Amino acid sequence: MNNIGFNIKRIRDQKGYSQEFIASRLNISQATYARMENQEIKISIDRLQKIADVLETDISTFLESSKVTIQNQTNNEGAYGNGYVENLHIAK
Asked: What pLDDT score does 12 carry?
């Protein structure tokens, strides 16, 4: 299993943080946060950065930047809105 949600969970577990703790720092419910880790909902780039800030890590740790190709990033909110990564391919 090699995806953004799994990487977020792995780092959260390494730091010893609960889903409740992270969710409270993001001002969202634990259930919503769990859905992000399970990749049931899209995570905006801005939200991904906030998660990285809470976990005191760099956003690239979620993406495994040396192995990731991002395709079709969309930005439905205009030039400065929240973009979403539509397709993420992790080379093995």
From this structure: 96
